[in-house]
Amino acid sequence: MEKDYIDYLLDHMAKRGVNIDMLMGLIRDVGHIVINSSDISLKLVNERLEHLGWGKNVLDEKGLQLILLV
Fold first, then answer.
1. What is the distance between the alpha carbons of residues 70 and 66, in angstroms, rounded to a whole number?
2. How far apart are the C-alpha atoms of 67 and 3, rounded to whole Å?
3. Is the separation of the CB atoms in 67 and 12 below 8 Å?
4. R_g (Cα) of the chain, nearest Å
5. pLDDT at residue 62 above 70?
6. 25-56 pLDDT tens trace
7. Residue 35 CB contacts under 8 Å (≥ 6 apart), including other chains
8. Distance between CA atoms of 60 and 65, rounded to whole angstroms?
């Protein structure tokens, strides 16, 4: 089942312009943000990702949820 989530995530993020090499770093950064935050929202995660150099609104709700599942 986890493989399905990973496949969905790869496909979804590729459509948003994030390639597989970048995706590993994005997953890592989202993980750090989530671990260090008591309240998680798409807006908060995107703001912190932008601060890390990922650009504006790199994630949508579906992308965030898929990352949290893997």
1. 7
2. 12
3. no
4. 11
5. yes
6. 999 999 999 998 888 999 999 999 999 999 99
7. none
8. 9
